Amino acid sequence: MQTNVLLKSFVMSSGERYCLLVDSISGLPLYYPNLFITTQIRNKSLSFSMMESVLGGISVLLRFMAERNEDIEARFRLNKYLEIHELDALRDFCQFKFRHRTIGTDSNVIFMREELQEGEKRVNTQTEYARLSVISNYVRWLAELLSGEGRGKSVTLRIGRMAGGIKARRPEKKKRNEGLDEKGLDEKQMNLLFEVFRPGSEFNPFVDTSIQIRNRLMFLILYYLGIRGGELLNIRIKDIDFSKNQLVVVRRADEKDDPRTNQPRAKTLDRRLPMKDTLVKEIHNYILNVRKKFVRPGQPDYLFVTHKEGPTKGLPVSISAYKKVIKVVRDVSPVLYGFTGHALRHKWNELFSEQMDAMDNPPSEEKQEEMRSYQMGWKSGSGSAGVYNKRFIKKKGQEASLKLQKGMVRLPKGMKDE
User: Fold this and answer.
1) From CA 182, how far away is CA 342, in angstroms rounded?
2) What string of DSSP letters covers 301-343?
3) How many CB atoms lie within 10 A of CB 224?
4) 128-161 b/e with 16+ CB inside 10 Å = b?
5) Which of 132, 157, 265, 316 could make an SS bond with 170 (beta carbons 3.0 to 4.6 A apart)?
């Protein structure tokens, strides 16, 4: 029965990112969870983050069984499967957040047997749904594996009922309320963001001037180019063509000299993006006058690096550090409640639509989609352009509706339409 489990993430010599569940006491990998990850996730070329998510779900199942002094593998070998009352309890268990207790300085602990739930705090329905989905797939795979190929029809049916019962207990996926799904940022929010990111601003939440300069450049690149956060963190100095004022966005899976275990990845296609003079000057200033103070000889040439003193100084900014910057800025004011790095990508698409709409002779709809798709790194005809253009379409529709209403109203004599 497994009670103390760690999630270990590491980088292989090939550059591939990998993770395992291990016994925190012996340090040995857990056989069946890691066999599942290897055969069902890794060999299907699914992402590293997916592997971590799956192992996280399995760890919740192991904790559930440990708190009941049960060994799921021993039970399945005896063809003893989870009963209805256990499925209900498992569903309830998957709703809770857990306080992670660490061993020494290891920050990768998923859970320990003796830890307590964080009061009555609960995860969101998306997390609960994901946990139950992972557990359903894992218990079906494990039960079938341990029962062997010679299992009878009744055993197969019982396994299917167990796995299906877990899936049936997943929360209903709520459709997003499109009226609240405003992913873009309005002018008030954008004006405040420019002020918050301005070095020396009284609203800038970061004390160190060098960090203020770095964070402002990160913000400007996201705003002016509309790239993803993973693409931003993947920029290397060699990707910048200063003679042509261009940035090459490159996909780099399993980069060997990237020290980040959770490597930021570009989901979109490679492309070459033009940059305005002022943006290029900001990049040039950061490289020559700020970045060089923190990078040590031999460190990779990623554009954005850690400024904090310590073992990570000069190394590329991690995903967690990037998310922390976004959160700190978002917490500056309630006005910025909707601020995310990805919201700037939506803002870029909104501004692109406005630019096209303002032209006397705009390109055709098909040509505009091709242009937008290239800039965003989408495959032509993928349909992604429509998703990111939703806010602009909604805005134009509202304007047209108001104009129509003014032409339709029949007012009493003597009353004017304002």
Assistant:
1) 12
2) -BSSB--SSSTTTTSBPPHHHHHHHHHHHHTT-GGGTT--HHH
3) 18
4) bbbbbbbbbbbbbbbbbebbeeeeeeebeebbee
5) 132
The encoded tokens of residue 39 equal 């055969």
Q: Look at residue 115 in the predicted model and tell me its pLDDT.
A: 40
H or E stretch covering 20? strand 17-23
Residue range 36-47, pLDDT digits in tens: 998 988 777 667
Torsion sign over Cα 93, 97, 101, 105: positive
Per the prediction, the chain carries an average pLDDT of 84
Q: Which domains does the chain have, with CATH numbers?
A: 5-168 (no CATH), 180-418 (1.10.443.10)
Integer angstrom CA distances of residue 115 from 1, 21, 65, 122: 16, 18, 14, 16
CA proximity to 112, closest of 99, 95, 97, 131: 99
Residue 238: pLDDT over 50: yes
| pLDDT on residue 372 | 87
Please return the burial class of 243, using the count of CB atoms within 10 Å of its CB with bins 0-12, 13-18 and 19+: exposed
Residue with tokens 């591939």: 16
Could you please report the per-residue DSSP string of 207-226? Answer: --HHHHHHHHHHHHHHHHH-
Structure tokens at 267: 């989901």
Q: Which one, of 231, 200, 199, lies nearest residue 217 by Cα? A: 199
Angle CA(91)–CA(97)–CA(100) in degrees, nearest 5? 130
**3-class DSSP string for 351-374:** HHHHHHHHCCCCCCHHHHHHHHHH
152-180: per-residue pLDDT in tens? Answer: 889 999 999 999 999 999 998 765 444 43
**pTM given for the model:** 0.65
- 125-147 and 84-93 helices, crossing angle to 10°: 140
Asked if 142 and 76 count as a contact pair (C-beta separation under 8 A), the reply is: yes
For residues 145 and 77, the answer to whether their CB atoms sit within 8 Å is no
